[in-house]
Design brief:
Length: about 160
């Protein structure tokens, strides 16, 4: 399986980079994982609704340019479906079983994802009703993908 994580914004925090690198190393036994980091749009604190939409659209265009037509796209979105780790593992397993071996996860910038990206997504996934920094979501996502492969293979992993 080939997994691509398309994400907006640069990861600066060393501790997050170390955690992500560790899980990507562990994942290499199960899948090829690439992270595509796209620049975020400058967005001052007090943006109007229209300015927010414009920022998300510009970021969305960059995201869509990195998605291949045959990719199964899973957008991380607060309004997405919440799953247990076992249900998420089942999703990964079914994708592999039914020939969807190229999966792209999309993590938006601080304002979220554009409507165009959400329309392109084959599914929307939520890790919580809470809002998390998009940089932290990278680490949470790669850990859950790793956990998913361990579950699929029936291999032990701490709970």
């Amino acid at each position: 399986m080939k997994i691509t994580i398309i994400t907006v914004g640069k990861l600066k925090e060393k501790y997050l980079k170390q955690g992500i690198d560790e899980y990507i190393k562990r994942l290499s036994a199960y899948a090829k994982v690439d992270i595509i980091e796209l620049p975020d749009e400058k967005a001052p604190e007090n943006l109007s609704e229209q300015d927010m939409r414009i920022v998300k659209e510009k970021e969305g265009e960059r995201i869509l340019a990195k998605i291949n037509p045959d990719d199964h796209v899973i957008a991380l979105a607060i309004e997405g479906k919440m799953k247990t780790s076992e249900e998420f593992a089942d999703t990964i397993d079914k994708l592999a079983t039914y020939g969807k071996s190229k999966v792209s996860f999309v993590i938006g910038g601080s304002l979220g994802l554009s409507d165009e990206v959400l329309k392109r997504a084959d599914e929307k996934l939520s890790f919580s009703k809470m809002t998390f920094p998009h940089q932290l979501m990278r680490l949470v996502l790669v850990e859950q993908v790793y956990r998913g492969f361990r579950i699929i293979r029936g291999e032990p992993y701490h709970k």
